[in-house]
Structure formats: C-alpha cells, structure tokens
Specification:
Rossmann fold; six-stranded parallel sheet; alpha/beta; homodimer
Amino acid sequence: MSEKIAFLGLGNLGTPIAESLINAGYELTVWNRTASKAEPLTKLGAKVVENAIDAIETGGIVISVLADDAVVEEIFSMELVEKLGKGGIHISMSTISPETSRQLSQIHDWYGATYIAAPIFARPEAVVAGVGNIAISGKAAAKEIVKPILQGFVKGIYDFGEDPGAANVVKLAGNFMIAASLEMMGEAFTMAEKNGISRQSIYEMLTQTLFAAPIFQNYGKLVANNVYEPVAFKLALGLKDINLTLQTASDANVPMPMADLIRNRFISALAKKRDNLDWSALAQGASDDAGA
Amino acid sequence: MSEKIAFLGLGNLGTPIAESLINAGYELTVWNRTASKAEPLTKLGAKVVENAIDAIETGGIVISVLADDAVVEEIFSMELVEKLGKGGIHISMSTISPETSRQLSQIHDWYGATYIAAPIFARPEAVVAGVGNIAISGKAAAKEIVKPILQGFVKGIYDFGEDPGAANVVKLAGNFMIAASLEMMGEAFTMAEKNGISRQSIYEMLTQTLFAAPIFQNYGKLVANNVYEPVAFKLALGLKDINLTLQTASDANVPMPMADLIRNRFISALAKKRDNLDWSALAQGASDDAGA
C-alpha cells in the first residue's frame, strides 16, 4: 500500500492517528500550526509542509483533526477546498457542530469534493491500542473509500447515514454522556466518602458490576482519587463540546437539563484555574461543594 | 443442607430470592402482607405464616426484603427482635436509609441479635440468573455466617465494613447512578432523534462501545424505544430511593445537583400518572420536554 494522505492537525489525538497511518503504510504529508509537533513524524517518514494547502493533492484524500469549528473553517478555506477539487475526499475527524459539517459539506460539493464527518471516540492511548470507535456520515460512495483507511486504527465504525452532520451529533451526545458520567461518579463517590466509605471501595464495586464499562472503569479511577493528570483532553475543549451539544439541542428544541449542569461544572472548573488538568476534573466540583 | 430461614417480604425481588433459597435446599418459613403472593412458594415447600413474628425462630436467621423504611420499622418491632434474640441474625436486604439501618442495628444489639445490611443490586430476572450483586456491612462474625447463604444466588458480595449503614449508602449511590444513566440516555437519544438520527442507532453504537455495561445495554433498550413496561421496579420506589439519597447526602453536607434533577423527573413522571410504568420511565421526561 502506498496511498497518499494529507494530514492536518497534530494534537493529542492527531499525532497517534497519523502515526498509525504511517505504520499502516500510507505516505503522509502533514501540517500543524506549531510545526515543531511534526518532528517525531518526520522521523517516521512523513513529509512536513508549512501551509495546510500545500499538503493537499487534487482528487486526493485529506484527514483533519483540528481543535474546533473556527479552526476547521479557517483551514478549509474556499481556496483549499477548490484545490482538493473533483474526486477529493475530506475525512473530518474533529469534534465540531453538525451545522458546521453541513455547511462545509456544501462547499465541498460546490468544488466536486466530498466531505465525510468521522469523529472518533478515543483517548490518545486508545488510538495507539486500536480500540477507538468512529461515527461516520456523509455520501455513501466516499464512505466506502475511506472506511478501509479508518479501519486500520479503530475497533468499530458506526454509519449514521448521509447527513454530514449526523456523526457530529452522535459524537456530541457521546461526549455529553461521558461528562455526565464523570459528574455522576463525583456526586456518588463524595456522598459515600462523607459517610465513611472510601471512594476506592465504592468505585471498585460499581465498576466491577453495574457500571463495568471502560468509561466508568478508566475515568472512575481518576474520580476515585480526585487526581486529574496527565491531561489527555483539555477542560476548555470539554466546555467547547458541551456548548456545541447545548446549541445543537437548542436548535432542535431539545432541553437538556443535565447538560446544563455539566456546562456549569466546566465553567466553574475553569474559574478555579484547573485548565492545567484533564477535562475529567469537572468531577471535582462535587467534592468542592461538599467541602471535601 | 436443611438450615431454616425466616423470609419476610415477597415482592418483585423477594419472591425470586426466596425461590433461589428453596432451590438451594433451605427450609423457608415465609410471610408477606398480601398472603396470596406466598402461594407459588407453598408449592415449592415453603411454610407460610400469617404474622411476621411467627416466622421467627430464636437464635435463627431472618431475611427481609421490604418496601421501605416505614415497613421495615413496623415489621421489626421490639417484640419481633426480642424473639429473634441472642444469636439471631437479621439479613436486611431492603433499600432503606443508612440511618434506619444504624437504629435497627442498635435495637438488635440490645436483644443480643445482629443486624446485617445486605441490599442487592438486581432486577428480578437477574436474581433468577444469579447475576445480582450485594453490598454488605455489619458485624464481621455474622457476615461470615450469612455470606455462604447469599453466595448461592448472587455473582458478587462486596464488603463495606462494620457500619451497618454503609451498605445502604452504597446501594443508594448505585441506584442514583442508574437513575442518572436513564436521564442521560433520555437527553442524548432525544437530541439525536430530533436531529434525524434513530434512537435505536445511537443506542447501539454507544452501548456496544463506551457504555458497554449492563445498565446501559438493558435500560438503554427501554429508553431507545420509550417503552417502560413491564414494571420491574415501581416509579414511586424510585422516588423513595432518590429522596433517601438526597437526605443521606444532606445529612453529610453533600450537595448533589444531579440527584436533585433526577428527583424532579420522578415527581413529574408521577404527576403524569406514569405510576403504572417501570421506574425507568423517568427517561421519558426528556422526550416530553422536547415535544417528541
């Protein structure tokens, strides 16, 4: 295999994804705003470019893993999408709003390219272990082309149809559920702790039984210890995601009181200068409130 | 094996537990307020008594699976506990407040009996399948006697020390987390649905991946379909549990905003006359709010 892929965005998630693709035999041309982050990939054989548009080949494939809606819209300028052009496919893995995906999809259509939303559920170590999962949506023909590329580094790909925004909706719903699980454990473990039960012992019972799922087992360890380092996903990005969730819900007339609560926890965590901690530090709010 | 056990309370959970004990070879004397519910057990060889106290043998073992604090306090009168007397052990499996457990424990101590809190996490079908889990707390010596009895019909027994209220705290925390999971799915699935994604498809992805735990897989099916029948656990009992959770939390100065939200969902579900549905019907609140 020697297919070429343009790869934009080498953050906490982008880097291990790019590495996996190189290991799988793809020829990568990478771009990142902070160019120094590309160095480890250069050693693996990736070509580095100074401007995102220089990575693009007309009719080729580009994967983007960028921070938020604004960055995706900035990088995927008319000029860049025009260069991607006829037959080109953009695999957009960033967690952005479904509305942005739908707008970008129209712009891609205009230039004969195809936009596929493919956000990934995975922390960096899950990408390395190949156990992440992707929600995908967009035009059927392009999805069939990109699925084999994605299959190399995830466990499952779940198809949500042709609406390019659909996969983003699923990703936002899932991130909301993860954040809600953190708050839930924060409240439950703190109630137990203040009743003389160790956070560790209730964590162990519940995550070995009713809540024996990765989210509770892995994040629960952090909540049990109230230790939220190292940072795998920034608090500010957690707030961004829950804001997108609430906006998407509001656009469809769906009140989400639990998501409102989570949003306030993120805001409070940032107010307490916890932006140097992992997003799961939102669970510390319950301890703070209880004077624990 | 032909040990005798007094068994009080043949509700949705009590009945399959009693059946499991009979099948395991125990000689059961059963009592239930509505005597007709004991009939199926009579056929299996259980002896039925008209008054709870008549089931008690001095120095013996009694298991109770009753509806709430008030019923447990009513049935476990001074007179009954006195009859249980020296060497007697009460395995209290009801979901009641830790405070009630602590008070009852003192009364048992007074008469030389021992109170063990052993609430079970299981829906009726889980008892039949032997996959429930028990949180246990109370005096060590009595726990060693009762564990072999309980092991016959559950998967795991988790020991939370000598405080007779501890196991109840864990049970309340766990029930809160289940209820919060229901609300979480209600909000997430409704947001997806109103964005053109089927509730079934998002349910499938999330419960096969990040949330691959029994709570999400089993209850998620009900939430995906917005169908909350048959009743395995009554809505009114769900409200009772969350009220106990909030009281226990408040007694220990622990604010639980997510539990507050759940409480209001239960109240609203009862206001909407859903008391003929399973407690998981609380998840329908998100759909109602969205006019779905």
